[in-house]
Amino acid sequence: MPVVVALRAGRGWFPAAQKPVAALVDDVEASRKEWTKAAAVTDADTFSAPCKKGLKIIDPRRTVTARKALGLTTTPPSNDGGGGSRGNGGSGGGLEV
To answer: Of all residues in the chain, what percent carry a pLDDT higher than 90?
Structure first.
């Protein structure tokens, strides 16, 4: 189940979490639109703008309000550029959500 579907299905969110979760869902939807634009381009220069915009919209720091309302940790992952090793059997350094 996609994250957006799961979040929207959360009809039981307690009142304090409803608006922050809805804002997070809106951000994910907006980011998806940018990634769709990026996927449709045919050159790297045109790809860059929607890619950067999509990444900015889903910046982990923007999730803090929703995470706090849900009683989750509010410390976003560090942006140290380490990123881990992906695709080569390493443990990876994906975003913690």
So the answer is: 15
